[in-house]
Amino acid sequence: MTNENHFVTQRLPLAIFLHATQRLPLSRCELVGDKVQFVFSDPQGIGDQAELDFENGESVVAKALLASQTFLRRRMSDALNQNRNDNRKDENRKNEHAYSRR
User: What is the DSSP track for 65-87?
Assistant: First the structure.
C-alpha cells in the first residue's frame, strides 16, 4: 500500500524482498493493533511495481534474503516487545492508582 512517500506492508516476505533487493529503505516497523507493519520510504512511488516484481517471482541473492529476514524479524520483535512493555507500564499505573485510593 502506498501512502505519501511511503510504502506500507504487513507481509513479512514482501518486506524481506524489498529490504534484500534494496529497492526501498526501511523507515520503521510499527505495531498496528496486533499486527506488525513495515513502513518503507518510497519518494519515487516504486513500491507497487516492486510488489508486482515480488509476486512475479523476481530472484534475490540468498545471502541478502537471509540477512534481511534476520534483520526484519529483530525489528518485529522490538516492536512487539515495546508494545508489551508499554502495556505493562499502563497496567502498573492502573494498579498504583487503585491502591492509592484505599
Answer: HHHHHHHHHHHHHHHHHHHHHHH
Neighbours of 74 (CB within 10 A): 11
Residue 91 in this model has a pLDDT that exceeds 90: no
In this structure, the chain runs to a length of 102
Backbone angles phi, psi at 40, to 5 degrees: -110, 145
**Residues 59-81 pLDDT 10s:** 999 999 999 999 999 999 999 99
pTM reported for the whole predicted model: 0.80
Q: Which long-range contacts (CB under 8 A, 24 or more apart) does 41-44 make?
A: 41/5, 41/6, 42/2, 42/5, 42/6, 42/7, 43/5
Cell matching residue 75: 525489528
